[in-house]
Fold these 2 entries.
Entry 1:
Amino acid sequence: MTVAGRKTQGRRVLVVGATGRLGTAIAEALTERGDEVVLTARDTEKLEKQAASLARGGRKAASFVSADLGHRDAVETIVHGLRAALPPKDGRGSIDDVILASGPFPRTPLAELRREDLERTITVHAVAPLLLVHALSSDLAKARGGVVALGDAGTTRPYEQHVAYLTAKGALKTGLQALAVELAPDVRVNVVELGVVADPEADADPLRRHRLATRSQLGRFGTPHDVVHAVLSLLDATWATGEVWGVGR
Ligand SMILES: NC(=O)c1ccc[n+]([C@@H]2O[C@H](COP(=O)([O-])OP(=O)(O)OC[C@H]3O[C@@H](n4cnc5c(N)ncnc54)[C@H](OP(=O)(O)O)[C@@H]3O)[C@@H](O)[C@H]2O)c1
């Protein structure tokens, strides 16, 4: 089936940060609904395991490309890997959609903040992802594709000890909104901004749980399931671009 020129099934989706807590949940949900995922992160062993675990139901293992977004050649490496795994043919590019779900989440106490912290974090969270979307934009356009990035609610309501990370996530959000304008209407670019997403560590500590939950408008954490649902919904929402939706904020 096709909606607004976009094929709704069997899409090829690049998941960046695919071995992380949320990246894993997103890659699984995409596979479950019949999309073909390509995974990327740094750790080759984890990627290999993750790729094999997605080989259910008679499907072959997912493709993956290992790359460190902090390295200058990361975008080239990922695009090269994609072209090798899924060569463009019959008017279709190598990839139809992109999910940006990579870390890290560095703590940078103000007293120790260094130029390198800012440079590295902005490179990993903003420069490389924005250049990757730029490099893949003609593939995405051919498929009326979408980009969905995981942002952080701290970019509008900052918290302490994370100046480098929050600055980088702010740059990513603004950069993606600018790309949404540049790439419309063929490619849609949206953000799911996260507050706190429940994790086992938080669940095990009632005080921490209470303190964090009070930061959210609904008085509760988001869950990985909420995040997956928001990401897939925005990916499919052919009417939406430049949107920032919230989960657990
Ligand atoms: N979980 C939350 O509560 C929360 C809240 C707000 C925002 N977010 C955002 O949501 C996204 C996912 O969060 P998460 O909790 O799933 O993170 P996570 O579990 O720490 O996973 C991070 C992923 O990014 C990859 N990664 C880290 N550094 C990288 C680098 N230099 N180059 C390439 N890949 C790299 C990791 O794999 P490798 O280490 O192998 O590279 C992993 O696949 C992040 O953008 C985070 O900022 C999360």
Entry 2:
Amino acid sequence: MPSFSGIEVTAQVDVDFEVFCGTCGAGLCNVSDTRESRNRRMPQVTVEACEKCMENAKDEGREEAEAEYEQQLSELRKELAEATAACHA
Ligand SMILES: [Zn+2]
């Protein structure tokens, strides 16, 4: 039987996929989009930062800042008490 070998076949497929936050597991499909790179024609996915994680990070930052502020405040109070005591000695 006559035959061809090594015939290249290109197939086009549509791919549906889901996107989740790797940190908290929240679904991110609504804030994800697809595009193609201009130069390399590579399929790309853009995802907005997870809102839940951003909010958590903000809270963590606020708590850290508050703890640091309390620490500095108590140090200043101590210094003030010492200075006052030295003044009245
Ligand atoms: Zn998240």
